Amino acid sequence: MAAVRDGLPDGRYGRTADERADRKLKVIGAVLGAALVAMIAWFGISYITGQDLSGRLVTYKVVSDTTVQAHLEVVKDPGTKGVCTLRSQSADGAEVGRKDVPIDQAKGQVDTVITIRTTARATNAELVGCTTSDAPGASS
């Protein structure tokens, strides 16, 4: 008795419908993946360039049991005003000092040394963040 074949001979009549569908799905997936990467890059770049005021804590020094000095560097658009918040922590992580520093100089880059008063001996100083004065919650 002769064997009955279920399908066409392999490779004889070109691609099957399943192979064509797989190729389409791969192309669609690659295009959507590239679009997602481009969208994430766009959001990241617009977030970074959209900041009007950015600060950096260059260094700090514990001066005494009740004082910490911090060197703060702020880059901003000329004429922009804002506030940077610094804090100090003790060895156990408790906050022992906090200070809001107004940034109201007209120039674009501001370097300043800030003295933070503490309630106990501090082990560090930390920049919490900087905001523009017109932002909600910021004080002039």
Number of helices: 1
Mean pLDDT: 84
| Percentage of β-strand residues | 35-45%
Distance between the termini: 96 Å
Cα Rg: 30 Å
Structure classification? alpha+beta
Spatial ordering of strands, largest sheet: 1-2-5
Please give the share of residues in helix: 10-25%
The count of strands amounts to 6
Largest sheet: 3 strands, antiparallel
Net shape: elongated
The H-and-E topology, N to C, reads as: HEEEEEE
Give start-end ranges of low-pLDDT stretches: 135-140
Please specify the SSE layout and strand pairing.
Blueprint: H1 17-49, E1 53-64, E2 67-76, E3 82-89, E4 95-103, E5 109-117, E6 124-132
Antiparallel strand pairs: 1-2, 2-5, 3-4, 3-6
Describe the structure in your own words:
Helices cover 24% and strands 41% of the residues. The chain is an alpha+beta fold and 140 residues long. It has a three-stranded antiparallel β-sheet with strand order 1-2-5, with no helix packed on it. A three-stranded antiparallel β-sheet has the order 4-3-6, with no helix packed on it. 16% of the residues are buried. The C terminus is likely disordered.
